[in-house]
Write a structure and sequence with these properties.
Radius of gyration: 30 Å
Helix content: 10-25%
Shape: elongated
Low-confidence stretches: 467-471
Mean pLDDT: 96
Largest sheet: 17 strands, mixed
Number of strands: 40
Bound molecules: uridine-diphosphate-N-acetylglucosamine, calcium ion
């Protein structure tokens, strides 16, 4: 099909995100509430970016600085222009805030709501195409609609006797007959930018909410003899808005179930109880990994194949190799665990902790910014912070790296094949040589050489053994 003249127009996007979201009953602006671990506004911006528009305009108001920061925190927000709506006088007024940028523009403008996060870019692309090809010359406005079994709360779309667009009536302004209508306005539109801003001048606030409604614009355009099209979409979930916390929770559940189904069907992951696991859509999990009930997997977590993640564990931006066992109630944040490692129960890894292949961390062990070498073990009640530990070293129960002197953090280096006795305090900065031994209860304040045995408080060299004697 040849391009219609309208298809040669450039594309801009406008996202409405200035409202407080009264129905959330929150001190946090609605678009900053999180879905799938990310603010609502970021979902919309990511979708908007996928359309490759010239510019994404974002109307901010309530907690505008925070909303701006959230958008800029993700790379998607890079071609965003922020426009401030001083007072939240309605969606029409919000669009009006961007007037100076867009009223003389020959572009096509897609208007999105910051609180409709599930819309897919494929759907928006189809909306734009419908808009550009309408009657071969393109429409002045195209309204995205959907039929809902329960349309309560949404603006209803009225059609004339020919089945063409007539007008939109908000729930609060609708009479009983109009409330029976199940076709609703998704709050997503495509406009001829110039015509939108011209019609917007005539919008009044004579309605139940005393607001300037963007929803009045399509009817004004129609009355002025312009073509107003309807693009009816078939998937109600995609256009669902978040107005209260019940809707937000429902959406979270839908997204999570979708992720879990995908992982079970496509990736070959076992969920013992799929209804009782939480996993972000960004997570990647390998084949034959088993996830037990009450596991939470957040952020961009990667888990390899044949792992077992036991109940009560939470993984945030974790990278886990193959054949790893995470036993019950572990917290693993921003950390990496190599192939064949075992962690927990009740272990805490954070701040770029790194476990190399075959190492083991056991009951009540905390690792912070620490590298645990291949085959090394810390099995019980231990804190290892700012430490580097070599291969095949054993850290006895109750060992603590005393890494903080009240002002600065200091490092501990422990070599290969070392035996740290139970209840050893390693007062950092300190180096423990290869194949050395510390006695139970020793407080190590000075570096220990290769093959030395140190004991006591403070620890003193008791013996210097060769490798053979220690093995
Ligand atoms: C709006 C539509 C309704 C549609 C529904 C779809 C209007 C008048 N009604 O209703 O027809 O069915 O969306 O989800 O448009 N906003 C501002 N500034 C304001 C007011 C709102 O930026 O002054 C932003 C909000 O932050 C939000 C979006 O516009 O992201 C929609 O506002 P909201 O109050 O949620 O409108 P609805 O009542 O849901
Ligand atoms: Ca809404």
């Amino acid at each position: 099909m040849p391009e219609s003249p309208a298809e040669q127009r450039s594309l801009n996007l406008l996202v409405l995100a200035a409202g407080l979201g009264t129905r959330m009953r929150s001190d946090l602006a609605k678009v900053l509430h999180r879905l799938d671990g990310r603010p609502l506004i970021n979902h919309v911006c990511r979708t908007a970016t996928a359309l490759a528009p010239e510019t994404i305009y974002i109307v901010i108001g309530h907690q505008g600085d925070e909303v701006r920061k959230a958008v800029l925190d993700e790379a998607d927000g890079q071609n965003a222009v922020f426009v401030t709506q001083e007072q939240q006088l309605g969606t029409g007024d919000a669009v009006n805030a961007a007037r100076s940028f867009l009223e003389d523009s020959d572009s096509t403008l897609v208007v999105l709501s910051g609180d409709v996060p599930m819309i897919r870019h494929e759907t928006l692309a189809a909306l734009v195409q419908h808009h550009h090809r309408y009657l071969d010359r393109g429409a002045a406005c195209t309204v995205l609609t959907v039929r809902l079994s329960d349309p309560t709360g949404y603006g209803r779309v009225l059609r004339d006797k020919h089945g063409m667009f007539d007008r939109i009536v908000e729930q609060k302004d609708a009479n009983d007959d109009e409330r029976q209508i199940t076709e609703i306005n998704a709050g997503i539109y495509c406009f001829d930018s110039r015509k939108l801003y011209s019609a917007l001048k005539a919008v009044k606030n004579h309605n139940a909410q005393g607001e300037y409604y963007l929803t009045d614009v399509p009817a004004l355009l129609k009355d002025a003899g312009e073509d107003v099209a309807i693009f009816q979409h078939s998937d109600p979930q995609e256009i669902e808005g978040v107005n209260d916390r019940v809707q937000l929770a429902n959406m979270e559940r839908i997204l999570c179930r979708r992720t879990i189904s995908r992982l079970m069907l496509d990736a070959g992951v076992t969920f013992i109880d799929p209804k009782n696991a939480y996993i972000s859509s960004e997570s990647i999990v390998g084949r034959d990994t088993i996830i037990h009930p009450n596991v939470t997997i957040e952020g961009a977590t990667q888990i390899g194949s044949r792992c077992e993640i036991r109940s009560g564990s939470r993984l945030v931006n974790a990278k886990i190799g193959d054949d790893v066992e995470i036993r019950d109630n572990c917290l693993i944040v921003d950390s990496e665990i190599g192939n064949g490692c075992s962690v927990g129960p009740m272990a805490h890894l954070r701040g770029r902790a790194l476990m190399i292949e075959g190492s083991k961390v056991g009951n009540f062990v905390e690792l912070k910014k620490t590298r645990l070498g291949r085959g090394s073990k810390a099995n019980h009640l231990t804190y290892l912070g700012d430490a580097t530990i070599g291969e095949n070293t054993n850290i006895g129960a109750g060992t603590i790296t005393c890494n903080y002197d009240g002002v600065k953090k200091h490092e501990t280096h422990i070599g290969d094949r070392v035996k740290i006795g139970s209840d050893t305090m390693l007062v950092a900065p300190v180096k423990i040589g290869d194949e050395s031994v510390t006695g139970a209860g020793s407080v190590v304040t000075k570096d220990v050489g290769d093959g030395e045995l140190v004991v006591g408080v403070p620890a003193r060299v008791k013996d210097k053994k060769d490798h053979g004697a220690l093995a």
